[in-house]
Specification:
heterodimer, A: 565 residues, mainly alpha, three-stranded antiparallel sheet, 17 helices, globular, B: 179 residues, alpha+beta, Immunoglobulin-like, 2 domains, seven-stranded mixed sheet, five-stranded mixed sheet, 2 helices, 12 strands, 23% helix
Chain lengths: 565, 179
């Protein structure tokens, strides 16, 4: 299988040209779905904004279904395919295993994505992202997702195959890089996720065409969430890998400890799969014991993993900066960070937003009893816009500022706008998440067309603060859509009209990664290399303080509602 | 020397972990355990725990039970639709049925008394969202969930449906009176 390699003159990264093409097409497909998702986001926002209420109910639910599917599945997983190919063939400097099969991945995902969208926009499949039975969508709604998932599974297979190729061709020595390890974590979780998806969506498809009579509604929820939530865990692993990647590229940062970071990824593999349980905390079908054990991701070991990454990523940056001489006070390393570089600023907002807003709210929401205060309220989408959007999408956006020059060989246009974009998008999305959670705390429902309940036999008036929160949701939602649209515009225009950059020298053979262990052995022992990271310690303690306070405030809220037993 | 290259130390798993990292891992681990124990503690000492009493049922069976409950205990009807207002008997058993798109019937409870409320749906998933006190419970067809509730304060409460159940979802508003 002959292929050609080129070495990017700006980054030194080596690309297998066949893999490179696949990365580009997958990334571009992702961006196009993000565009669809962004347009639907605007329509959703403008309808939930009580002062505007743009769409009628039927169109609102249709658009909301499309928004969920196109963002949570299509945009993110297409982009993740590009990340998987990058983390394997590019970082390991080897050829991509079976590029033809990788094209099957791409086209299956394209066909599946379009099929599901056709089903949604035909109008008979407004069943939401979750498609809980016995509400039924058109058969091609399920079939499209199944095809898409088969494609994604093939992509994971190509990734694993590429790891084997690199090992066999000896393109690296020792262990795979941490970023590749993180991507591997994502791929392993993806296999589990897709298997769960098959276990529930194939029967559901057969039910929709009449071959199966009934699917138990509780069973559906349990198995579906092993797809629905675990797929978000793929994102967590992928964007944590990207945080490490950005820290490495922007600062030359080295992990504080390979052992700790890899162990944290391992905890994800072991425990994240239990996450489906925390969608079922207020369900009738599971016992309290089952809920307590599973919702905590088995005693919070996966949360522990995220808290470890939350320490080691900024810690690695701090250590790298301190070695460069930014050693004054606690935070000179952070103040003197390249805040004008969107690759870094986007990544750092992603890190802080994911940790402080998404992480804390997620654990609180996922506490067995506290869940009853928030289950199915607007708090839930508030939480996951902090994790999936501020966390994953913003991390993907920030890495794109690096990928456009190195992968697409184009210079980004409008550098000033590129500098602003992560702030505009990241900060407005952070505020959006907060005000959504505020509305949810006051009880406002998610997936609900009308806060005024027009046509209901009674009236219920939400508190004025809930209307205020929903108004702010509208305002910051629109700003966030502008920030996201700006990114799409910048990327698409740069790909089309940006200055073409030199692709670098090509060769028929990959150049292996030089063995560094000899140099490292000469440069001193590991233990002396440790740099103290006091600034990161302060950040981590701040996070923990917020976490503890907010956690117990919610127990206090819970103690004030009706007695339940 | 960085996260995108193989670890410089071939035997990276033998490298010592710095004190600050150990400290953070220790703190995070202790916090994780506290959060875990909190849920168990609340089951022993807390007053808000979701009931474990659940029965498999069918839509017909649950409909029949609810109809019998309404027939025996209705005290008046309200609105143009003649929705029955039902006061549970001395044993405090009550049925609340979710359907497209209403909560049936209206319940009248007393503050401080404990009721066994049987919750189920006869069609899709629905969401029991009691406002303004903000208690949210998933209601699933085929499962009869017996939730013990003790209202704390008199007032008129709304039951919002907060699980999407189709085009009339936003009209699905129920009511509970607490005297």
């Amino acid at each position: 299988m002959a292929t050609t390699y080129r070495t990017c003159p700006r980054t030194g990264l080596q690309f297998d040209l066949k893999a490179e093409k696949l990365m580009r097409w997958n990334a571009v497909a992702g961006v196009l779905w993000l565009l669809v998702g962004g347009i639907t986001a605007l329509l959703v926002i403008l309808t939930r904004w009580p002062a505007i209420k743009l769409l009628p109910a039927d169109q609102f639910y249709l658009i909301l279904t499309a928004h969920g599917i196109d963002m949570l599945i299509l945009w993110i997983i297409f982009f993740e395919m590009a990340v998987l190919y990058f983390a394997s063939s590019t970082l390991l400097r080897c050829r991509l295993a079976t590029p033809n099969l990788a094209w099957v991945q791409f086209w299956l995902m394209v066909v599946g994505g379009i099929m599901t969208n056709v089903a949604i926009f035909q109008g008979g499949s407004s069943v939401m992202f979750t498609s809980y039975v016995p509400m039924q969508a058109a058969p091609h709604f399920y079939l499209g997702i199944i095809l898409f998932a088969v494609g994604a599974l093939i992509g994971c297979g190509v990734f694993f195959g590429t790891l084997v190729v690199a090992k066999r061709d000896k393109t690296y020595t020792g262990s795979i890089p941490l970023v590749t390890f993180g991507a591997m974590t994502a791929a392993i979780i993806a296999v589990f996720t897709i298997a769960s998806g098959a276990a529930i969506l194939i029967p559901t498809f057969l039910w929709s065409v009449g071959l199966i009579k009934e699917i138990d509604a509780q069973l559906y929820r349990m198995v579906w969430w092993a797809l629905g939530h675990s797929s978000q865990q793929i994102n967590v692993s992928a964007h944590v890998a990207i945080w490490y990647l950005v820290a490495a590229v922007a600062f030359g940062a080295k992990p504080l400890s390979e052992k700790v970071s890899r162990f944290a990824f391992l905890l994800y593999i072991l425990f994240l799969q239990l996450a489906s349980a925390h969608h079922l905390l207020s369900d009738p079908g599971m016992s309290a014991e089952w809920k307590v054990l599973n919702t905590s991701y088995f005693m919070y070991f996966a949360v522990l993993a995220s808290m470890i990454h939350g320490f080691t990523v900024p810690g690695a940056i701090e250590a790298a900066q301190r070695k460069k001489g930014f050693t004054n006070g606690l935070f000179e390393w952070l103040r003197k960070a390249p805040w004008g570089n969107p690759v870094f600023s986007g990544m750092f907002i992603s890190l802080v937003g994911f940790g402080f807003i998404g992480g804390i709210s997620g654990v609180v929401l996922g506490t067995e009893q506290i869940n009853m205060l928030m289950h199915n309220t607007f708090y839930v989408p508030g939480h996951f816009h902090a994790t999936v959007v501020v966390g994953t999408t913003l991390a993907f956006m920030s890495i794109t500022y690096l990928l456009v020059p190195t992968l697409f060989k184009r210079e980004m246009l409008f550098p000033k706008l590129c500098q602003i974009q992560p702030y505009l998008y990241g900060l407005s999305m952070t505020v959006l998440s907060l005000v959504m959670m505020g509305a949810g705390t006051l009880g406002v429902s998610r997936r609900h067309w009308d806060m005024a309940f027009s046509g209901a036999p009674f009236q219920y008036e939400w508190p004025g603060a809930a209307y205020l929160m929903m108004g702010l949701t509208g305002i910051f939602g629109v700003i966030a859509v502008i920030g996201g649209g700006l990114w799409i515009g910048l990327v698409v225009l740069s790909l089309l009209f940006g200055k073409k950059l030199d692709g670098g020298a090509t060769s028929d053979k990959p150049t292996p990664i030089p063995d560094q262990s000899a140099a490292a052995a000469a440069s001193g022992t590991g233990s002396q290399e440790h740099t103290n990271v006091p600034g990161t310690v302060v950040l981590a303690i701040t996070l923990l303080t917020c976490f503890v306070l907010y956690y117990f405030v919610n127990w206090k809220y819970l103690s004030e509602v009706w007695g339940l037993s | 020397m960085s996260a995108i290259l193989p670890p410089a130390e071939r035997l990276w798993w033998k490298q010592p972990i710095a004190g600050q990292e150990w400290a953070w891992i220790g703190i995070a681990f202790v916090w994780a355990m506290i959060m875990f124990i909190m849920m168990v503690y609340w089951h022993i000492n807390g007053k808000q725990n979701l009931s474990n009493e659940v029965y498999k049922t069918t839509t017909e069976m649950f409909q029949a039970k609810t109809d019998a409950f309404v027939k025996e205990n209705t005290i008046r009807t309200e609105t143009d639709q003649q929705i029955p207002v039902v006061k549970p008997n001395a044993k405090g058993e009550a049925f609340l049925l979710a359907r497209l798109w209403s909560w049936y019937p209206i319940l009248e409870l007393e503050a401080g008394k404990t009721y066994k409320i049987h919750l189920s749906s006869v069609d899709y998933n629905h969401g029991f969202s009691l406002q303004p006190t903000n208690i949210n419970i998933q209601v699933i067809p085929g499962y009869e969930h017996v939730v013990k509730m003790t209202p704390t304060k008199a007032g008129t409460y709304a039951i919002v449906c907060n699980e999407y159940c189709g085009i009339g979802h936003h009209t699905m508003l129920g009511r509970i009176y607490v005297k």
